[in-house]
């Protein structure tokens, strides 16, 4: 099964309030996006890694990867939205015969590569697999500040990445969305569901947090240190 991984790092990371995009910030002396790339680059099950990067930072990203001896990653320019960036990543491998694709946010560098085999075993035609985490907090559904419903949290999961699909399924869904001018999907699983696909989940074995602000970076540092003990 020929498999590609698309790592999306096209944002500017404005919420981090730093002089560089958040994916270039260091997490225990290694850039966040490098840690995410290494998850897949180091796997025998991944045949190709595509890094979707903001156009202004592609050259810098290439130099950094070369510094670490990672010279087989394709770096392509991202779009205005995450959806567009993923689509560009999918287009870049359109004619290379990939059967399966993992789509991952570079801002989640703590995902465990040990789960890649399980994800690939679970994916089927029209069936995507999403890494999730159970919610420990009670969740309110509100309207104008008032609580209108309290869903059963045992049935709730926080969607994360990677999200894994048959390449032709997710590529076709992206093309349909563009044709219908639907451009606001925030993840690929919801996009596939919109076109009659099905999604199943796999609980993450790590705290697979998304780094969006300074506090998240501090938490990630602590999680990495605990993992290394």
Description of the structure:
By secondary structure, the chain is of the alpha/beta class. The chain has one domain: Spore Coat Polysaccharide Biosynthesis Protein SpsA, Chain A. Helices cover 31% and strands 24% of the residues. It has helices at 32-41, 58-67, 82-91, 116-122, 167-179, 188-194, 214-228, and strands at residues 3-9, 48-53, 74-77, 100-105, 127-134, 141-143, 146-149, 157-166, 198-203. It has a seven-stranded mixed beta sheet, sandwiched between helices. Helix 5 (167-179) packs across helix 6. The longest helix is centred in the last third of the chain and has 15 residues, at 214-228. The mean pLDDT is 94.
Brief overview:
By secondary structure, this protein is of the alpha/beta class. Helix content is 31%, strand content 24%. It starts with a strand and ends with a helix.
Which helices and strands occur, and which strands form pairs?
Blueprint: E1 3-9, H1 32-41, E2 48-53, H2 58-67, E3 74-77, H3 82-91, E4 100-105, H4 116-122, E5 127-134, E6 141-143, E7 146-149, E8 157-166, H5 167-179, H6 188-194, E9 198-203, H7 214-228
Parallel strand pairs: 1-2, 1-4, 2-3, 5-9
Antiparallel strand pairs: 4-8, 5-8, 6-7
Helix pairs in contact: 3-5, 5-6
Keywords: Isoprene biosynthesis, Nucleotidyltransferase, Transferase
GO molecular function, one term: 2-C-methyl-D-erythritol 4-phosphate cytidylyltransferase activity
InterPro entries: IspD, IspD/TarI, IspD/TarI_cytidylyltransf_bact, ISPD_synthase_CS, Nucleotide-diphossugar_trans
């Amino acid at each position: 099964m020929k498999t590609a991984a698309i790592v999306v790092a096209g944002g500017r990371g404005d919420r981090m309030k730093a002089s560089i995009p958040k994916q270039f910030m260091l997490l225990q002396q290694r850039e966040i996006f490098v840690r995410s790339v290494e998850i897949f680059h180091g796997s025998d099950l991944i045949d190709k890694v595509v890094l979707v990067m903001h156009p202004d930072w592609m050259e810098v990203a290439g130099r950094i990867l070369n510094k670490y001896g990672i010279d087989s990653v394709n770096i392509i320019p991202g779009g205005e939205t995450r959806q567009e960036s993923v689509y560009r990543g999918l287009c870049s491998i359109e004619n290379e015969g990939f059967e399966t694709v993992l789509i991952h946010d570079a801002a989640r560098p703590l995902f465990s590569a040990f789960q890649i085999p399980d994800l690939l075993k679970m994916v089927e035609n029209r069936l995507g697999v999403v890494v999730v985490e159970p919610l420990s907090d009670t969740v309110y559904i509100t309207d104008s500040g008032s609580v209108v419903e309290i869903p059963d949290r045992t049935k709730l999961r926080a969607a994360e990445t990677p999200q894994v699909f048959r390449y032709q399924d997710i590529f076709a869904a992206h093309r349909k969305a563009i044709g219908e001018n639907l451009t606001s999907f925030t993840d690929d699983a919801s996009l596939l569901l919109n076109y009659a696909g099905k999604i199943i989940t796999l609980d993450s074995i790590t705290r697979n947090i998304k780094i969006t602000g300074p506090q998240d970076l501090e938490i990630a540092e602590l999680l990495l240190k605990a993992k290394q003990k």
